[in-house]
Amino acid sequence: MSEGGGLAANIPAPLVGRRPASPLAALELLKPITWFAPMWAFGCGVVSSGVAPTERLGLFALGVLLAGPLVCGTSQAVNDWFDRHVDAINEPNRPIPSGRIPGRWGLWIAIGMSLLSLAVASQLGTWGFWATVVGLVLAWAYSAPPIRLKQNGWWSSAVCGACYEGLPWITGAAVMAGGAPAPVVLLVAALYSIGAHGIMTLNDFKAVEGDRRMGIGSLPVRLGVAPAARLACWVMALPQVAVVALLLARDAPLHAAAVAAVLGVQVVLMRKLLSDPRKLAPWYNATGTTLYVIGMLVTAFAIRPVA
Questions:
Q1: 285 lies in which domain range?
Q2: Which residues pair with 217 in a beta bridge?
Q3: Which CATH number goes with the domain that contains 31?
Q4: What is the pLDDT of residues 26-71, one digit of tens each?
């Protein structure tokens, strides 16, 4: 079966209907729970710029809207449309395979959200607009054939890590500062994007069976669950070690100690995760990943310029 085609026989009949999608099903398609990560990263970028949100409140509000509901929501709609055959195996109750979003409504929602994102981004200056363009291009390239980056777990986790952490961080810093972010901001955003590669690998554990059957080469499929889990832990931890070293070099020992502390707790949690990665990945995402993003905010305060 080819990607994106010949799917009607593999998906419940309601998918091919013509009735409109309900608002609640459309909201579920956009997965609000996923919006937090890029919105938080955007906020970290704002903090690292040294500009208070109240000084550019309109830009701040538009940026949060763009990072979460619009660009992230778009990426979820795109992914669900092109993954509808996989979701029919892994998550048959999702809006598209269940038929609650029938016909091509999923595709139209993805296209409409992309256009709306670009319209809002045009109000955020050059950096905000082009960062949005990059994010949308990656969102479509991640899911849509013929590129479909998610077919390769190395690329898919890298793209998601960049879009969830690095890109919104850089955007928040640039939009608020009104220009290119400082080099240290770019470096920290890159480090946390690399670490997020491991977080995204953990997200793939829930879909191992469907991914294997549909030929999607996530890292748990390519490497096996246990090796992929160990790799994810190393990838999450090492960039944070680099952040601690960077903060010490910048004479921010208290911030460095705080990041080291949250990393230390993560390491303890990782040891439990490795005992049963498939079962405990959601638990780790609720605990260890929370500590990870707390470290991001601490780092943002540490590197912001001092007047």
A1: 22-303
A2: 152
A3: 1.10.600
A4: 999 999 999 999 999 999 999 999 999 999 999 999 999 999 999 9
pLDDT digits (tens, 9 = 90+) for 192-227: 999 999 999 998 888 787 788 878 899 999 999 999
Count how many residues are written for the chain.
Answer: 307
Low-confidence ranges of the chain (pLDDT < 70): 1-21, 307
Is 176 inside a domain boundary? Answer: yes
Tally of structural domains, the chain = 1
- Angle between helix axes 183-203 and 225-249 (nearest 10 degrees) is 160
Site of tokens 């929501």: 73
Q: Residue 199 contacts by C-beta under 8 Å, 6 or more apart in sequence?
A: 161, 164, 232, 236, 285, 289, 292
Q: Tokens for 71?
A: 């660009």
Would you call 217 helix, strand, or coil by DSSP? Answer: strand
Within-domain flag for 182: yes
Contact 259, 252 (CB under 8 A): no
Residue 149 lies in a domain: yes
Q: How many helices (H) and strands (E) does the chain have?
A: 15, 0
pLDDT at 18: 52
What is the pLDDT at residue 12? 44
Please tell me the distance from the alpha carbon of residue 60 to that of residue 64, in angstroms, as a whole number.
Answer: 6
The answer to whether 77 touches 27, Cβ cutoff 8 Å, is no
3-state SS, 87-120, equals HHHHCCCCCCCCCCCCCCHHHHHHHHHHHHHHHH
pTM for the complete prediction? 0.89
